[in-house]
Each structure stands twice: as structure tokens, then as C-alpha cells.
Give the backbone structure.
Amino acid sequence: ARALPVALGIKLRGGSTTVATVFSGSTAAVAAIHAGDQIVALNGQRVTQGNWDTLQLTLQPEQPVNLHLFRDDELLTVELRPKPAPADTWTLSLHPADGAIAERRRAWLGV
């Protein structure tokens, strides 16, 4: 079964794991996460700018998760209960590609 998308209510600053925005009324806001916090791990998994979206796809609505973050120089652990993503939210992901499919994708992207 495919996982349902969840919403934590956090937007990261481009190219980093620093929280840029915490949406009002979101799970993150209820857990007192602040803009400027640096996320380091989600359920014990190291968070990078490149894997943040993938890690969120492993979460289930209402199943508690631990978010580890630095606020200033203090390491904090916050428990969150992800909410189902709003009906206007969807996720795109690349299908694993090899051979001719990968070559067509690279040509289309110009890389």
C-alpha cells in the first residue's frame, strides 16, 4: 500500500536543513518549532536538504515521530504527530530509470 502524504508544516531554507517557515496551526507550530531551527534528524535518520522530502514520505498520519534539531547551540528532540496532507497537496517523484529511459530524461533536462 502506498503511504499517504503527510504535512508537518515546515518549509526549509533553500539548500539547507534550516527551518525557513513554520505554518500557523501546523503540527510543527503546535510542537513549538521555530524559524531558524536547524533540523538534524528525523526518527534517528540524518536529515539533509536532499533527503528531507524522501524521509517525510516514510511518515504515517498520526504516528508519532521524533525530530532532532539545534536551536542556537542546544540540541532538542521534539515529538510530532504528522497530519494528513491537505487535499490540495500532491507529491511528484521520479520513477527509477535506467538505460534508454535515463538517457531520454537526461536529454530532456539538458544534463
User: Anything to note?
Assistant: Helices lie at 27-30, 52-57, 99-109. The longest helix spans residues 99-109. The mean pLDDT is 88.
